[in-house]
Design a protein that fits this description.
The chain contains seven helices and ten strands. It is of the alpha/beta class. Helix 3 packs across helix 4 and helix 3 runs parallel beside helix 5.
Amino acid sequence: MILMKDVHKTYANGVVALSGINVDIKQGEFVYIVGPSGAGKSTFIRLMFREVKPSNGTIRINDINVNDLKERKVPYLRRNIGVVYQDFKLLPKLSVYENVAFALEVIEESPAVIRKRVMEVLDLVGLKNKARFLPDELSGGEQQRVSIARAIVNHPKIVIADEPTGNLDPETSREIMKIFEEINDRGTTILMATHSKEIVNTFRKRVIAIEDGLIVRDEHRGDYGYES
């Protein structure tokens, strides 16, 4: 599902973000990306959906060579990747329903399909009864649930979550993690960058640790391994 071979990334200002990354993530895996701030985690994540391109090396996502992908094809790659952010990135003037539906409207799904899928995912994340609410009428945990619903409404094969519990209290974080586990149980590959020691050590999954642009640890059911 995700294959990186000898991937390097050096930015125009000379900062070396990644140096010789090799990783193979299978369909249906749940993987944490951990490491100190500035280690290269964000670059690792951004390479997945072609927000940035590698300086050297090969990246294949769902058997697509990301390096050689023409710009006009990038949106098609991203249709199979759902992204969940720490700060939600919801559209403030749109309702919960409209925020989630927007992800399907941009790919011109029919109104009938949109309604069916949106209500299905809102039910999954426990917000079916708040479909008409605006984002500022929701708690932080509820806003993150909307963000997750938007990320999965198009049935992506991969969900990338960048610090999805970073702004949430511990109890809400655990509730959000249970949603991610359910999504993963349905066959979706999940890649999650996190600084949460509690989350990683409670919900044991594969752990890839990055330090100074290098993978220093790759463990099945690993622990966080750092002070949080």
